[in-house]
Amino acid sequence: MSKHTIVVCDHIHEDGLNILQNTEDVNYVYAADIDKTELLNVIKDADVAITRSSTDVDEKFLTAAVNLKAIIRAGVGYDNVDMEGCSKRGIIAMNVPTANTIAAVELTMAHMLSCMRKFPYAHNQLKQDRIWKREDWYGNELFGKKLGVIGFGNIGHRVALRAKSFEMEVVTYDPYIPSTKATDLGINYTNNFQDILDCDIITIHTPKNQETLDMIGEEEIAKMKDGVVLINCARGGLYNEDALYNNLKSGKIAMGGIDVFIKEPAIDHPLLDLPNVTVTAHLGANTKESQKQIAIQAAENAIESARGIAYPNALNLPIDESKIPSFVKPYIELTQKMAFLSAQIDKSAIRSISVCARGEIAEYLDSLNTFATVGALTVSSGDEVNYVNAKFWAEEKGITIDSNVMANNTSGYSNKVTVKITTEKGTTSISGTVFDENVQRIVEINDFVFDIEPKGKMIIMRNNDIPGVIGEVGRLLGDNNINIADFRLSRGKDGALAVILVDEKVCANTLKELNSLEAARSVSYAQI
Ligand SMILES: NC(=O)c1ccc[n+]([C@@H]2O[C@H](COP(=O)([O-])OP(=O)(O)OC[C@H]3O[C@@H](n4cnc5c(N)ncnc54)[C@H](O)[C@@H]3O)[C@@H](O)[C@H]2O)c1
Ligand SMILES: O=C(O)[C@H](O)COP(=O)(O)O
Protein backbone atom coordinates (compact mmCIF):
# COMPACT_ATOMS: atom_id res chain seq x y z
CA MET A 1 0.00 0.00 0.00
CA SER A 2 1.38 3.39 -0.91
CA LYS A 3 1.49 5.69 2.10
CA HIS A 4 0.88 9.42 2.35
CA THR A 5 3.49 11.35 4.32
CA ILE A 6 1.95 13.86 6.71
CA VAL A 7 4.42 16.11 8.54
CA VAL A 8 3.27 17.82 11.75
CA CYS A 9 5.35 20.99 11.98
CA ASP A 10 4.02 22.44 15.27
CA HIS A 11 2.65 21.14 18.56
CA ILE A 12 -0.87 19.80 18.29
CA HIS A 13 -2.99 17.85 20.77
CA GLU A 14 -2.16 14.15 21.12
CA ASP A 15 -5.65 13.11 19.98
CA GLY A 16 -4.80 14.46 16.52
CA LEU A 17 -1.42 12.75 16.55
CA ASN A 18 -3.06 9.44 17.51
CA ILE A 19 -5.39 9.65 14.52
CA LEU A 20 -2.42 10.09 12.21
CA GLN A 21 -0.45 7.33 13.89
CA ASN A 22 -3.33 4.85 13.69
CA THR A 23 -4.15 5.46 10.03
CA GLU A 24 -2.79 2.65 7.91
CA ASP A 25 -2.06 4.59 4.75
CA VAL A 26 -0.37 7.48 6.59
CA ASN A 27 3.32 7.79 7.22
CA TYR A 28 3.28 10.33 10.01
CA VAL A 29 6.33 12.48 10.84
CA TYR A 30 6.43 14.53 14.02
CA ALA A 31 8.61 17.59 13.38
CA ALA A 32 7.33 20.04 16.02
CA ASP A 33 10.44 19.83 18.17
CA ILE A 34 13.08 20.23 15.49
CA ASP A 35 14.78 23.42 14.43
CA LYS A 36 12.99 25.27 11.61
CA THR A 37 16.10 24.95 9.41
CA GLU A 38 16.07 21.19 9.87
CA LEU A 39 12.34 21.22 9.12
CA LEU A 40 13.23 22.31 5.57
CA ASN A 41 14.95 18.98 5.14
CA VAL A 42 12.08 16.97 6.60
CA ILE A 43 9.37 18.82 4.70
CA LYS A 44 10.70 17.70 1.30
CA ASP A 45 8.99 14.31 1.76
CA ALA A 46 5.65 15.69 2.92
CA ASP A 47 2.48 15.16 0.90
CA VAL A 48 0.58 17.18 3.49
CA ALA A 49 1.82 19.45 6.30
CA ILE A 50 0.05 20.55 9.48
CA THR A 51 1.25 23.91 10.84
CA ARG A 52 0.38 26.53 13.46
CA SER A 53 1.51 30.12 13.80
CA SER A 54 5.04 29.06 14.82
CA THR A 55 5.85 27.79 11.32
CA ASP A 56 6.01 30.34 8.53
CA VAL A 57 4.89 28.80 5.28
CA ASP A 58 7.08 31.10 3.23
CA GLU A 59 9.12 30.87 0.03
CA LYS A 60 11.87 28.85 1.76
CA PHE A 61 9.39 26.37 3.18
CA LEU A 62 7.52 25.98 -0.10
CA THR A 63 10.68 25.65 -2.17
CA ALA A 64 11.81 22.82 0.12
CA ALA A 65 8.38 21.13 0.13
CA VAL A 66 8.67 19.69 -3.37
CA ASN A 67 5.97 17.03 -2.93
CA LEU A 68 3.48 19.08 -0.93
CA LYS A 69 -0.12 18.86 -2.13
CA ALA A 70 -1.94 20.39 0.82
CA ILE A 71 -1.29 22.34 3.96
CA ILE A 72 -3.52 22.49 7.04
CA ARG A 73 -3.18 25.58 9.21
CA ALA A 74 -4.37 24.14 12.56
CA GLY A 75 -6.07 27.38 13.58
CA VAL A 76 -7.76 30.44 12.08
CA GLY A 77 -5.25 33.08 11.00
CA TYR A 78 -3.23 32.27 7.88
CA ASP A 79 -1.29 35.51 7.60
CA ASN A 80 1.96 33.52 7.88
CA VAL A 81 1.03 31.29 4.94
CA ASP A 82 2.18 32.54 1.53
CA MET A 83 -1.13 31.90 -0.18
CA GLU A 84 0.01 32.96 -3.64
CA GLY A 85 3.11 30.78 -3.30
CA CYS A 86 0.85 27.82 -2.43
CA SER A 87 -1.49 28.50 -5.35
CA LYS A 88 1.36 28.82 -7.85
CA ARG A 89 2.54 25.39 -6.81
CA GLY A 90 -0.93 23.87 -6.81
CA ILE A 91 -0.86 23.39 -3.04
CA ILE A 92 -4.29 23.61 -1.44
CA ALA A 93 -4.21 25.55 1.83
CA MET A 94 -6.86 24.96 4.47
CA ASN A 95 -7.51 26.24 7.98
CA VAL A 96 -9.54 25.06 10.96
CA PRO A 97 -11.63 28.18 11.41
CA THR A 98 -13.93 27.73 14.39
CA ALA A 99 -12.48 25.22 16.83
CA ASN A 100 -10.57 27.85 18.83
CA THR A 101 -13.20 30.61 18.73
CA ILE A 102 -14.34 30.23 22.34
CA ALA A 103 -10.77 29.99 23.60
CA ALA A 104 -9.89 33.30 21.91
CA VAL A 105 -13.12 34.95 23.09
CA GLU A 106 -12.49 33.98 26.70
CA LEU A 107 -8.86 35.12 26.61
CA THR A 108 -10.06 38.48 25.29
CA MET A 109 -12.47 38.79 28.24
CA ALA A 110 -9.65 37.76 30.58
CA HIS A 111 -7.39 40.51 29.19
CA MET A 112 -10.19 43.02 29.46
CA LEU A 113 -10.87 42.19 33.12
CA SER A 114 -7.17 41.93 33.82
CA CYS A 115 -6.55 45.41 32.45
CA MET A 116 -9.46 46.93 34.39
CA ARG A 117 -8.34 45.42 37.71
CA LYS A 118 -4.58 45.39 36.94
CA PHE A 119 -4.80 41.79 37.93
CA PRO A 120 -1.28 40.53 37.21
CA TYR A 121 0.33 43.42 39.07
CA ALA A 122 -1.91 43.01 42.11
CA HIS A 123 -1.26 39.28 41.99
CA ASN A 124 2.51 39.71 41.80
CA GLN A 125 2.57 42.19 44.67
CA LEU A 126 1.02 39.69 47.01
CA LYS A 127 2.45 36.46 45.65
CA GLN A 128 5.99 37.48 44.73
CA ASP A 129 6.61 40.54 46.93
CA ARG A 130 4.44 39.38 49.88
CA ILE A 131 2.97 42.90 50.26
CA TRP A 132 -0.65 43.45 51.38
CA LYS A 133 -1.43 46.95 50.12
CA ARG A 134 -5.05 47.12 49.05
CA GLU A 135 -4.92 50.88 48.45
CA ASP A 136 -2.63 50.33 45.46
CA TRP A 137 -5.27 48.44 43.52
CA TYR A 138 -8.30 50.54 42.79
CA GLY A 139 -9.34 49.34 39.38
CA ASN A 140 -12.22 50.17 37.08
CA GLU A 141 -15.41 48.32 36.19
CA LEU A 142 -16.57 47.01 32.84
CA PHE A 143 -20.13 47.86 33.88
CA GLY A 144 -21.44 50.89 31.99
CA LYS A 145 -18.31 51.32 29.86
CA LYS A 146 -18.44 51.63 26.10
CA LEU A 147 -16.70 48.81 24.22
CA GLY A 148 -15.69 49.13 20.57
CA VAL A 149 -15.34 45.82 18.71
CA ILE A 150 -13.46 45.98 15.40
CA GLY A 151 -14.33 42.91 13.34
CA PHE A 152 -17.63 41.17 14.06
CA GLY A 153 -16.80 37.61 12.97
CA ASN A 154 -16.73 34.40 14.96
CA ILE A 155 -14.68 35.89 17.79
CA GLY A 156 -15.72 39.55 17.67
CA HIS A 157 -19.45 38.90 17.88
CA ARG A 158 -19.05 36.54 20.84
CA VAL A 159 -16.87 39.05 22.67
CA ALA A 160 -19.61 41.62 22.08
CA LEU A 161 -22.27 39.28 23.50
CA ARG A 162 -20.20 38.55 26.59
CA ALA A 163 -19.52 42.25 27.09
CA LYS A 164 -23.26 42.88 27.02
CA SER A 165 -23.72 40.43 29.88
CA PHE A 166 -21.29 42.65 31.81
CA GLU A 167 -23.77 45.44 31.05
CA MET A 168 -21.39 47.30 28.79
CA GLU A 169 -22.57 49.40 25.87
CA VAL A 170 -21.16 47.76 22.74
CA VAL A 171 -20.60 49.14 19.25
CA THR A 172 -19.00 47.27 16.37
CA TYR A 173 -17.27 48.30 13.16
CA ASP A 174 -17.09 45.71 10.37
CA PRO A 175 -17.74 46.92 6.83
CA TYR A 176 -18.05 43.35 5.56
CA ILE A 177 -21.18 42.32 7.43
CA PRO A 178 -24.79 43.46 7.11
CA SER A 179 -25.51 45.82 10.02
CA THR A 180 -28.41 43.56 11.08
CA LYS A 181 -25.94 40.84 12.05
CA ALA A 182 -25.02 43.13 14.95
CA THR A 183 -28.28 44.94 15.60
CA ASP A 184 -30.26 41.66 15.72
CA LEU A 185 -28.06 40.75 18.69
CA GLY A 186 -28.63 44.11 20.39
CA ILE A 187 -25.19 45.40 19.45
CA ASN A 188 -24.83 48.87 17.92
CA TYR A 189 -23.36 48.91 14.44
CA THR A 190 -21.37 51.78 12.99
CA ASN A 191 -19.62 52.50 9.75
CA ASN A 192 -18.03 55.60 11.20
CA PHE A 193 -14.67 54.54 12.63
CA GLN A 194 -14.65 57.55 14.98
CA ASP A 195 -17.48 55.85 16.96
CA ILE A 196 -14.99 53.11 17.79
CA LEU A 197 -12.24 55.60 18.66
CA ASP A 198 -14.67 57.27 21.11
CA CYS A 199 -14.98 54.09 23.21
CA ASP A 200 -13.53 53.42 26.69
CA ILE A 201 -12.20 50.03 25.65
CA ILE A 202 -11.36 48.86 22.12
CA THR A 203 -10.77 45.28 21.05
CA ILE A 204 -9.84 44.09 17.56
CA HIS A 205 -10.79 40.78 15.91
CA THR A 206 -9.97 41.10 12.22
CA PRO A 207 -7.60 38.98 10.16
CA LYS A 208 -4.18 40.49 9.52
CA ASN A 209 -3.87 41.68 5.93
CA GLN A 210 -2.81 44.76 3.98
CA GLU A 211 -6.00 46.56 4.94
CA THR A 212 -5.89 45.85 8.66
CA LEU A 213 -2.14 46.15 9.31
CA ASP A 214 -1.56 49.33 11.39
CA MET A 215 -5.30 49.94 11.46
CA ILE A 216 -4.75 51.76 14.73
CA GLY A 217 -1.71 54.06 14.70
CA GLU A 218 -0.63 57.42 16.18
CA GLU A 219 -3.33 59.30 14.31
CA GLU A 220 -6.17 57.08 15.51
CA ILE A 221 -4.87 56.94 19.09
CA ALA A 222 -4.69 60.77 19.16
CA LYS A 223 -8.44 60.78 18.48
CA MET A 224 -9.18 58.43 21.39
CA LYS A 225 -10.17 59.34 24.94
CA ASP A 226 -7.35 59.80 27.43
CA GLY A 227 -7.11 56.64 29.50
CA VAL A 228 -8.49 54.34 26.81
CA VAL A 229 -7.87 50.58 27.16
CA LEU A 230 -6.74 48.61 24.09
CA ILE A 231 -7.00 44.83 23.74
CA ASN A 232 -5.38 42.80 20.96
CA CYS A 233 -5.92 39.05 20.91
CA ALA A 234 -5.95 38.85 17.09
CA ARG A 235 -2.59 39.62 15.46
CA GLY A 236 0.49 41.71 16.24
CA GLY A 237 0.65 44.82 14.06
CA LEU A 238 -3.09 45.53 13.85
CA TYR A 239 -2.28 48.19 16.43
CA ASN A 240 0.95 49.79 15.26
CA GLU A 241 3.40 48.52 17.87
CA ASP A 242 5.47 51.74 18.11
CA ALA A 243 2.34 53.86 18.53
CA LEU A 244 1.03 51.42 21.11
CA TYR A 245 4.31 51.57 23.07
CA ASN A 246 4.60 55.39 22.95
CA ASN A 247 1.02 55.99 24.05
CA LEU A 248 1.11 53.39 26.81
CA LYS A 249 4.30 55.01 28.05
CA SER A 250 2.76 58.49 27.98
CA GLY A 251 -0.41 57.23 29.70
CA LYS A 252 -2.72 58.26 26.86
CA ILE A 253 -3.55 54.57 26.74
CA ALA A 254 -4.19 53.53 30.34
CA MET A 255 -3.78 49.80 29.85
CA GLY A 256 -3.05 47.38 27.04
CA GLY A 257 -4.05 43.70 26.98
CA ILE A 258 -1.83 42.03 24.42
CA ASP A 259 -1.66 38.38 23.35
CA VAL A 260 0.04 38.76 19.97
CA PHE A 261 3.14 40.46 18.60
CA ILE A 262 4.52 41.16 15.15
CA LYS A 263 7.56 39.01 15.84
CA GLU A 264 7.06 35.96 17.98
CA PRO A 265 8.40 34.64 20.29
CA ALA A 266 8.44 38.17 21.73
CA ILE A 267 10.69 37.69 24.72
CA ASP A 268 12.61 40.96 24.28
CA HIS A 269 9.73 43.15 23.19
CA PRO A 270 9.75 46.75 24.59
CA LEU A 271 6.05 46.40 25.53
CA LEU A 272 7.10 43.86 28.17
CA ASP A 273 8.98 46.61 30.06
CA LEU A 274 5.90 48.77 30.57
CA PRO A 275 3.97 48.69 33.86
CA ASN A 276 0.55 49.07 32.24
CA VAL A 277 0.39 46.06 29.92
CA THR A 278 -1.01 42.60 30.57
CA VAL A 279 0.62 40.11 28.22
CA THR A 280 0.29 36.49 27.20
CA ALA A 281 2.43 34.50 24.77
CA HIS A 282 -0.09 34.05 21.93
CA LEU A 283 -2.33 31.89 24.10
CA GLY A 284 -5.63 32.80 22.48
CA ALA A 285 -6.17 29.26 21.18
CA ASN A 286 -4.51 27.50 24.09
CA THR A 287 -7.30 25.72 25.89
CA LYS A 288 -7.30 21.96 26.11
CA GLU A 289 -10.81 21.88 24.66
CA SER A 290 -9.90 23.96 21.65
CA GLN A 291 -6.57 22.28 20.96
CA LYS A 292 -8.15 18.85 21.13
CA GLN A 293 -10.81 19.82 18.58
CA ILE A 294 -8.34 21.61 16.31
CA ALA A 295 -5.93 18.66 16.32
CA ILE A 296 -8.68 16.15 15.55
CA GLN A 297 -10.04 18.27 12.69
CA ALA A 298 -6.56 19.04 11.35
CA ALA A 299 -5.59 15.35 11.37
CA GLU A 300 -8.83 14.23 9.70
CA ASN A 301 -8.61 16.97 7.09
CA ALA A 302 -4.95 16.17 6.44
CA ILE A 303 -5.81 12.52 5.78
CA GLU A 304 -8.73 13.38 3.49
CA SER A 305 -6.65 15.83 1.49
CA ALA A 306 -3.70 13.41 1.27
CA ARG A 307 -6.09 10.87 -0.22
CA GLY A 308 -7.48 13.54 -2.55
CA ILE A 309 -11.00 13.00 -1.19
CA ALA A 310 -11.87 16.42 0.23
CA TYR A 311 -10.33 19.77 1.11
CA PRO A 312 -12.43 21.13 4.00
CA ASN A 313 -12.14 24.89 4.56
CA ALA A 314 -9.87 25.33 1.56
CA LEU A 315 -8.67 28.93 1.33
CA ASN A 316 -7.17 29.19 -2.13
CA LEU A 317 -9.49 27.30 -4.44
CA PRO A 318 -10.61 29.49 -7.35
CA ILE A 319 -13.97 27.74 -7.19
CA ASP A 320 -16.21 27.16 -4.22
CA GLU A 321 -17.53 23.69 -5.09
CA SER A 322 -20.31 23.95 -2.52
CA LYS A 323 -21.79 26.82 -4.57
CA ILE A 324 -21.83 24.90 -7.86
CA PRO A 325 -25.23 23.34 -8.63
CA SER A 326 -25.18 19.70 -9.70
CA PHE A 327 -26.27 20.46 -13.30
CA VAL A 328 -23.05 22.47 -13.80
CA LYS A 329 -20.65 19.69 -12.81
CA PRO A 330 -20.90 17.61 -16.04
CA TYR A 331 -20.37 20.83 -18.05
CA ILE A 332 -17.24 21.55 -16.07
CA GLU A 333 -15.96 18.04 -16.74
CA LEU A 334 -16.89 18.29 -20.42
CA THR A 335 -15.17 21.68 -20.77
CA GLN A 336 -11.94 20.28 -19.32
CA LYS A 337 -12.10 17.33 -21.74
CA MET A 338 -12.83 19.56 -24.76
CA ALA A 339 -9.86 21.80 -23.89
CA PHE A 340 -7.66 18.74 -23.43
CA LEU A 341 -8.75 17.47 -26.84
CA SER A 342 -8.34 20.86 -28.56
CA ALA A 343 -4.81 21.28 -27.26
CA GLN A 344 -3.87 17.86 -28.69
CA ILE A 345 -5.17 18.61 -32.19
CA ASP A 346 -2.77 21.47 -32.97
CA LYS A 347 -0.19 20.33 -30.45
CA SER A 348 2.32 23.16 -29.87
CA ALA A 349 2.77 26.13 -27.54
CA ILE A 350 -0.63 27.51 -26.53
CA ARG A 351 -1.24 31.21 -27.13
CA SER A 352 -4.81 31.64 -25.97
CA ILE A 353 -7.68 29.81 -24.33
CA SER A 354 -11.16 31.12 -24.80
CA VAL A 355 -14.45 29.81 -23.42
CA CYS A 356 -17.82 30.87 -24.68
CA ALA A 357 -21.10 29.67 -23.17
CA ARG A 358 -24.80 29.98 -23.79
CA GLY A 359 -27.80 29.31 -21.57
CA GLU A 360 -27.91 29.01 -17.79
CA ILE A 361 -24.42 27.54 -17.83
CA ALA A 362 -23.03 30.94 -18.89
CA GLU A 363 -23.40 32.07 -15.27
CA TYR A 364 -20.54 29.71 -14.42
CA LEU A 365 -18.09 30.97 -17.03
CA ASP A 366 -15.33 31.57 -14.47
CA SER A 367 -15.41 27.96 -13.33
CA LEU A 368 -15.61 26.67 -16.92
CA ASN A 369 -12.65 28.86 -17.79
CA THR A 370 -10.54 27.51 -14.92
CA PHE A 371 -11.19 23.92 -15.96
CA ALA A 372 -10.59 24.69 -19.65
CA THR A 373 -7.20 26.05 -18.61
CA VAL A 374 -6.46 22.89 -16.62
CA GLY A 375 -7.48 20.70 -19.57
CA ALA A 376 -5.41 22.64 -22.09
CA LEU A 377 -2.28 22.84 -19.94
CA THR A 378 -2.44 19.17 -18.94
CA VAL A 379 -1.37 18.27 -22.50
CA SER A 380 2.09 19.74 -21.94
CA SER A 381 2.37 19.72 -18.14
CA GLY A 382 0.52 16.58 -17.02
CA ASP A 383 -0.76 16.17 -13.48
CA GLU A 384 1.29 19.05 -12.16
CA VAL A 385 -1.44 21.41 -13.31
CA ASN A 386 -4.57 21.57 -11.21
CA TYR A 387 -7.33 24.08 -10.73
CA VAL A 388 -5.42 25.88 -7.97
CA ASN A 389 -2.33 26.69 -10.02
CA ALA A 390 -3.71 26.67 -13.59
CA LYS A 391 -4.21 30.44 -13.74
CA PHE A 392 -0.64 31.09 -12.53
CA TRP A 393 0.84 28.59 -14.99
CA ALA A 394 -1.04 30.19 -17.86
CA GLU A 395 0.14 33.65 -16.78
CA GLU A 396 3.72 32.44 -16.57
CA LYS A 397 3.52 30.98 -20.09
CA GLY A 398 2.03 34.22 -21.44
CA ILE A 399 -1.25 32.53 -22.42
CA THR A 400 -4.23 34.84 -22.85
CA ILE A 401 -7.40 33.60 -21.22
CA ASP A 402 -10.84 34.99 -21.84
CA SER A 403 -14.45 34.00 -21.64
CA ASN A 404 -17.70 35.41 -22.91
CA VAL A 405 -21.37 34.72 -23.19
CA MET A 406 -22.46 33.48 -26.63
CA ALA A 407 -24.35 36.29 -28.34
CA ASN A 408 -26.73 34.13 -30.33
CA ASN A 409 -27.39 30.46 -30.62
CA THR A 410 -28.38 28.84 -33.83
CA SER A 411 -27.56 25.34 -32.67
CA GLY A 412 -30.78 24.75 -30.77
CA TYR A 413 -29.05 23.52 -27.61
CA SER A 414 -30.30 25.32 -24.51
CA ASN A 415 -26.86 25.06 -22.88
CA LYS A 416 -23.73 24.96 -24.94
CA VAL A 417 -20.04 25.54 -24.21
CA THR A 418 -17.36 26.25 -26.79
CA VAL A 419 -13.65 26.03 -26.05
CA LYS A 420 -11.32 27.67 -28.54
CA ILE A 421 -7.60 27.06 -28.25
CA THR A 422 -5.04 28.83 -30.36
CA THR A 423 -1.58 27.30 -30.51
CA GLU A 424 1.41 28.19 -32.65
CA LYS A 425 0.06 25.78 -35.29
CA GLY A 426 -3.54 26.95 -35.49
CA THR A 427 -6.91 27.33 -33.81
CA THR A 428 -9.29 24.55 -32.79
CA SER A 429 -12.77 25.19 -31.55
CA ILE A 430 -14.83 22.44 -29.90
CA SER A 431 -18.39 22.77 -28.62
CA GLY A 432 -20.30 20.48 -26.35
CA THR A 433 -23.50 20.02 -24.42
CA VAL A 434 -25.00 17.69 -21.82
CA PHE A 435 -28.17 15.63 -22.30
CA ASP A 436 -30.27 13.93 -19.61
CA GLU A 437 -28.27 15.53 -16.79
CA ASN A 438 -25.01 13.69 -17.34
CA VAL A 439 -24.67 12.53 -20.95
CA GLN A 440 -21.77 14.60 -22.24
CA ARG A 441 -21.46 15.15 -25.97
CA ILE A 442 -19.12 16.97 -28.34
CA VAL A 443 -21.43 18.58 -30.89
CA GLU A 444 -19.03 20.61 -33.05
CA ILE A 445 -15.38 20.58 -34.01
CA ASN A 446 -14.27 23.60 -36.03
CA ASP A 447 -17.85 24.20 -37.23
CA PHE A 448 -18.28 20.58 -38.33
CA VAL A 449 -21.32 19.04 -36.64
CA PHE A 450 -20.85 15.83 -34.62
CA ASP A 451 -22.35 13.77 -31.84
CA ILE A 452 -19.41 12.19 -30.06
CA GLU A 453 -18.84 10.94 -26.54
CA PRO A 454 -15.72 12.73 -25.23
CA LYS A 455 -13.87 9.57 -24.41
CA GLY A 456 -11.19 7.28 -25.75
CA LYS A 457 -8.48 7.24 -28.42
CA MET A 458 -9.19 9.07 -31.65
CA ILE A 459 -7.75 10.26 -34.93
CA ILE A 460 -8.96 13.66 -36.10
CA MET A 461 -8.52 14.02 -39.82
CA ARG A 462 -9.30 17.04 -41.94
CA ASN A 463 -9.75 15.89 -45.51
CA ASN A 464 -11.02 16.76 -48.98
CA ASP A 465 -14.52 15.45 -49.51
CA ILE A 466 -13.72 13.04 -52.33
CA PRO A 467 -14.74 9.42 -52.92
CA GLY A 468 -12.81 6.57 -51.33
CA VAL A 469 -11.45 8.28 -48.22
CA ILE A 470 -13.15 6.00 -45.69
CA GLY A 471 -11.94 2.91 -47.55
CA GLU A 472 -8.35 4.11 -47.77
CA VAL A 473 -8.22 5.08 -44.12
CA GLY A 474 -9.75 1.72 -43.10
CA ARG A 475 -7.22 -0.22 -45.19
CA LEU A 476 -4.25 1.76 -43.87
CA LEU A 477 -5.28 1.38 -40.23
CA GLY A 478 -5.99 -2.33 -40.79
CA ASP A 479 -2.50 -2.77 -42.27
CA ASN A 480 -1.16 -1.23 -39.09
CA ASN A 481 -3.25 -3.52 -36.85
CA ILE A 482 -5.43 -0.69 -35.60
CA ASN A 483 -9.04 -1.59 -35.01
CA ILE A 484 -11.62 1.10 -35.77
CA ALA A 485 -14.29 1.35 -33.06
CA ASP A 486 -16.31 4.07 -34.76
CA PHE A 487 -15.97 6.34 -37.78
CA ARG A 488 -17.70 9.71 -37.71
CA LEU A 489 -17.58 11.97 -40.73
CA SER A 490 -18.94 15.48 -40.93
CA ARG A 491 -19.16 17.30 -44.24
CA GLY A 492 -18.94 21.05 -44.67
CA LYS A 493 -18.70 23.65 -47.44
CA ASP A 494 -14.95 23.25 -47.55
CA GLY A 495 -14.15 19.56 -47.20
CA ALA A 496 -14.85 17.18 -44.37
CA LEU A 497 -13.66 16.29 -40.88
CA ALA A 498 -13.40 12.70 -39.70
CA VAL A 499 -13.20 11.57 -36.08
CA ILE A 500 -12.05 7.95 -36.07
CA LEU A 501 -12.31 6.21 -32.72
CA VAL A 502 -9.72 3.47 -32.42
CA ASP A 503 -8.90 0.72 -29.94
CA GLU A 504 -5.13 1.16 -29.99
CA LYS A 505 -2.79 4.07 -29.60
CA VAL A 506 -1.69 5.38 -33.00
CA CYS A 507 2.04 5.89 -33.49
CA ALA A 508 3.69 8.81 -35.31
CA ASN A 509 4.52 6.64 -38.36
CA THR A 510 0.90 5.61 -38.94
CA LEU A 511 -0.15 9.26 -38.60
CA LYS A 512 2.46 10.16 -41.18
CA GLU A 513 1.09 7.55 -43.57
CA LEU A 514 -2.45 8.87 -43.05
CA ASN A 515 -1.20 12.37 -43.67
CA SER A 516 0.27 11.30 -46.99
CA LEU A 517 -3.11 10.10 -48.31
CA GLU A 518 -4.20 12.20 -51.23
CA ALA A 519 -7.34 13.48 -49.51
CA ALA A 520 -5.68 14.31 -46.18
CA ARG A 521 -5.18 17.93 -45.19
CA SER A 522 -4.15 17.42 -41.56
CA VAL A 523 -4.15 14.46 -39.18
CA SER A 524 -3.75 14.36 -35.40
CA TYR A 525 -4.10 11.77 -32.70
CA ALA A 526 -5.71 12.52 -29.35
CA GLN A 527 -6.78 10.69 -26.28
CA ILE A 528 -9.23 11.74 -23.58
N1 LIG B 1 -4.75 35.01 19.70
C1 LIG B 1 -5.08 33.88 19.16
O1 LIG B 1 -4.56 32.84 19.50
C2 LIG B 1 -6.13 33.85 18.11
C3 LIG B 1 -7.05 32.78 18.06
C4 LIG B 1 -7.99 32.76 17.04
C5 LIG B 1 -8.01 33.77 16.09
N2 LIG B 1 -7.10 34.78 16.17
C6 LIG B 1 -7.12 35.88 15.19
O2 LIG B 1 -8.41 36.47 15.22
C7 LIG B 1 -8.80 36.79 13.90
C8 LIG B 1 -10.32 36.79 13.83
O3 LIG B 1 -10.81 35.47 14.01
P1 LIG B 1 -12.32 35.09 13.69
O4 LIG B 1 -12.42 33.62 13.92
O5 LIG B 1 -13.24 35.99 14.39
O6 LIG B 1 -12.36 35.39 12.13
P2 LIG B 1 -13.63 35.72 11.25
O7 LIG B 1 -13.19 35.58 9.86
O8 LIG B 1 -14.80 34.94 11.72
O9 LIG B 1 -13.91 37.26 11.55
C9 LIG B 1 -13.12 38.30 11.09
C10 LIG B 1 -14.02 39.50 10.89
O10 LIG B 1 -13.20 40.63 10.59
C11 LIG B 1 -13.91 41.40 9.67
N3 LIG B 1 -13.02 42.32 8.97
C12 LIG B 1 -12.17 42.06 7.96
N4 LIG B 1 -11.54 43.17 7.58
C13 LIG B 1 -12.00 44.16 8.37
C14 LIG B 1 -11.74 45.54 8.45
N5 LIG B 1 -10.86 46.13 7.63
N6 LIG B 1 -12.39 46.26 9.37
C15 LIG B 1 -13.29 45.69 10.21
N7 LIG B 1 -13.59 44.39 10.17
C16 LIG B 1 -12.96 43.63 9.26
C17 LIG B 1 -14.56 40.38 8.76
O11 LIG B 1 -15.63 40.94 8.05
C18 LIG B 1 -15.00 39.33 9.75
O12 LIG B 1 -16.32 39.55 10.17
C19 LIG B 1 -8.15 35.71 13.04
O13 LIG B 1 -7.90 36.18 11.75
C20 LIG B 1 -6.87 35.41 13.77
O14 LIG B 1 -5.82 36.14 13.21
C21 LIG B 1 -6.18 34.85 17.15
O1 LIG C 1 -5.15 32.22 14.32
C1 LIG C 1 -5.24 31.40 15.21
O2 LIG C 1 -5.95 30.38 15.14
C2 LIG C 1 -4.54 31.69 16.50
O3 LIG C 1 -3.68 32.73 16.38
C3 LIG C 1 -3.91 30.48 17.07
O4 LIG C 1 -2.63 30.29 16.58
P1 LIG C 1 -1.81 29.03 17.10
O5 LIG C 1 -2.35 27.86 16.42
O6 LIG C 1 -0.41 29.26 16.76
O7 LIG C 1 -2.05 28.99 18.57
TrEMBL record:
<keyword id="KW-0718">Serine biosynthesis</keyword>
<keyword id="KW-0028">Amino-acid biosynthesis</keyword>
<keyword id="KW-0520">NAD</keyword>
<feature type="domain" description="ACT">
    <location>
        <begin position="458"/>
        <end position="528"/>
    </location>
</feature>
<dbReference type="InterPro" id="IPR006140">
    <property type="entry name" value="D-isomer_DH_NAD-bd"/>
</dbReference>
<dbReference type="Pfam" id="PF00389">
    <property type="entry name" value="2-Hacid_dh"/>
</dbReference>
<dbReference type="InterPro" id="IPR006236">
    <property type="entry name" value="PGDH"/>
</dbReference>
<comment type="pathway">
    <text>Amino-acid biosynthesis; L-serine biosynthesis; L-serine from 3-phospho-D-glycerate: step 1/3.</text>
</comment>
<dbReference type="InterPro" id="IPR006139">
    <property type="entry name" value="D-isomer_2_OHA_DH_cat_dom"/>
</dbReference>
<protein>
    <recommendedName>
        <fullName>D-3-phosphoglycerate dehydrogenase</fullName>
        <ecNumber>1.1.1.95</ecNumber>
    </recommendedName>
</protein>
<comment type="similarity">
    <text>Belongs to the D-isomer specific 2-hydroxyacid dehydrogenase family.</text>
</comment>
<dbReference type="Pfam" id="PF02826">
    <property type="entry name" value="2-Hacid_dh_C"/>
</dbReference>
<dbReference type="InterPro" id="IPR045865">
    <property type="entry name" value="ACT-like_dom_sf"/>
</dbReference>
<comment type="function">
    <text>Catalyzes the reversible oxidation of 3-phospho-D-glycerate to 3-phosphonooxypyruvate, the first step of the phosphorylated L-serine biosynthesis pathway. Also catalyzes the reversible oxidation of 2-hydroxyglutarate to 2-oxoglutarate.</text>
</comment>
<dbReference type="InterPro" id="IPR045626">
    <property type="entry name" value="PGDH_ASB_dom"/>
</dbReference>
<dbReference type="InterPro" id="IPR002912">
    <property type="entry name" value="ACT_dom"/>
</dbReference>
<dbReference type="Pfam" id="PF19304">
    <property type="entry name" value="PGDH_inter"/>
</dbReference>
<keyword id="KW-0560">Oxidoreductase</keyword>
<dbReference type="InterPro" id="IPR029009">
    <property type="entry name" value="ASB_dom_sf"/>
</dbReference>
<dbReference type="InterPro" id="IPR036291">
    <property type="entry name" value="NAD(P)-bd_dom_sf"/>
</dbReference>
<dbReference type="Pfam" id="PF01842">
    <property type="entry name" value="ACT"/>
</dbReference>
<dbReference type="GO" id="GO:0006564">
    <property type="term" value="P:L-serine biosynthetic process"/>
</dbReference>
<dbReference type="InterPro" id="IPR029752">
    <property type="entry name" value="D-isomer_DH_CS1"/>
</dbReference>
<dbReference type="GO" id="GO:0051287">
    <property type="term" value="F:NAD binding"/>
</dbReference>
<dbReference type="GO" id="GO:0004617">
    <property type="term" value="F:phosphoglycerate dehydrogenase activity"/>
</dbReference>
